[in-house]
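Hi F.,

I've been meaning to write this up properly since the lab meeting, where we talked about keeping a consistent format for the predictions we share between groups. The idea is simple: the sequence comes first, exactly as it goes in, then the structure tokens exactly as they come out, then a line or two of notes. No screenshots and no reformatting. I'm using this chain as the first example so we have something concrete to point to.
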Amino acid sequence: MKTSTLSGLTKVLCAFVLAGLIPAFTSVANAQVLATVGFYQDPNDSGVKHDVFRLIVDYSKSLDAMIAAGEYDVVVPTNASFELKADGGKEAVLTAKLIHFKNAASSTDAIALMKKDGGRPATIEELLACGAQWQSLQRKYKIAALGSVSLDGGNLVVPCLSGDDRRRIFVMVPFNTVWKGGNDGIRFLEIIPGK
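Output, unedited:
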């Protein structure tokens, strides 16, 4: 992905930060902006990059209804069973971001970073809402939700979205995966509470 400085987009993102639509970061003025949903690259070059966006999650929906809303071309069958949050059957507007690492990382590395950042790993409901609302994201990236872990055939698994120009896929991936880093590596969906 090509990095460029977009002064107009930078001004818009700063206006969104000031309006509270995108959470403020330690140094937005020094951030490099890319042409995506809202891209923030850590000016300290810690190796972590973020795509920030709003996510509307209807916690009253069943898992089957959430999968159907995503209109996935492929849903890989699984024996995994997830306990849904069922947040009082309410709809919530959340601030979410996709993080990824320059180099390979474990699931526990990603969870530790989210906690350090004040966030939390997304649940399956939040991942499926992301897939339904931001379909183009999973055509560009593989996206994992580490906040929902289940047993499937004796292995711990997490839900993951992937795809390409031709199809979008919902699948379970082992939790203990060493996730690929870099521009074409996995993205982890993080929820930023209270934003």
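Notes:
Confidence is low (pLDDT under 50) at residues 1-46.
The chain has two domains: 1-45, 47-192.

If this format works for you, I'll send the rest the same way.

G.
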